[in-house]
Write a structure and sequence with these properties.
InterPro entries: TPR-like_helical_dom_sf. The chain contains 9 helices and no strands. The protein has helices at 2-35, 39-55, 60-74, 80-100, 105-121, 123-144, 149-161, 170-186, 199-209.
């Protein structure tokens, strides 16, 4: 009888430990992602994060980082078809995360970033469609959390790369990038797994606006 009573306790303990272990594994995979220098290394890190996401269907952060890793990979690839295929995987992961947390600002920031990556594959043919989608996603992210610095960074990046004749340019980008840098300074990540990317990119673009 005692053995029968011990079984449920053992499995409960196992499940609690398993649920917490993904954070350590995710942290290790993110360290690998930050250190990645080649498409192959980025792909390896993205695969690891995707496996963690698959094993944690109720956690949005692994799906968030699976999306982020595949977006990063898309910018390292040369073939348009490969880039789009990687971004399809990114969108699939992001859709999962949005189902779990539809009002999470960081996820809508990432949707804006994904649209930017789609646009970057073919700016001439995709500019009209994905420019609007990028801004719409980032404005939604800003409405959900006006203090999120990544929103202003990506909006600044978007307008920095947009021709002046259609509403872009350095003069439009500069105040957004300035706000981004200011908000990065006063909004440190809550913990080691919280999104923290973009500060160096915002500073670099702002310097180019001077």
């Amino acid at each position: 009888m005692k053995k029968l009573l011990l079984l449920p306790v053992f499995f409960i303990t196992f499940l609690v430990q398993a649920q917490g272990n993904y954070q350590a594994a995710l942290g290790e995979a993110l360290t690998e992602l930050k250190a990645a220098k080649t498409p192959e290394e980025t792909q390896d890190a993205a695969n690891k994060i995707s496996r963690i996401s698959a094993a944690e269907p109720k956690a949005w952060l692994p799906a968030y980082y699976a999306t982020y890793a595949h977006i990063a990979l898309s910018f390292q690839l040369k073939e348009d078809a490969q880039r789009d295929a990687v971004l399809d995987k990114a969108q699939s992961s992001l859709d999962k995360a949005l189902t779990l947390e539809p009002k999470e600002s960081e996820l809508h920031v990432l949707q804006g970033y994904l649209h930017q990556a789609r646009l970057a594959v073919s700016p001439m043919s995709r500019g009209m469609k994905y420019s609007g989608l990028t801004v719409a996603s980032l404005e939604k992210a800003k409405a959900l959390n006006p203090e999120n610095p990544r929103t202003y960074f990506l909006l600044g990046q978007h307008y920095f790369n947009m021709p002046k004749m259609v509403g872009g340019g350095k003069d439009v980008a500069k105040p957004l990038l300035t706000t981004a840098v200011e908000k990065y300074a006063v909004a440190p990540p809550a913990n080691s797994l919280s999104p923290s990317w973009g500060m160096n990119g915002a500073k670099s673009l702002l310097a180019k606006c001077e």
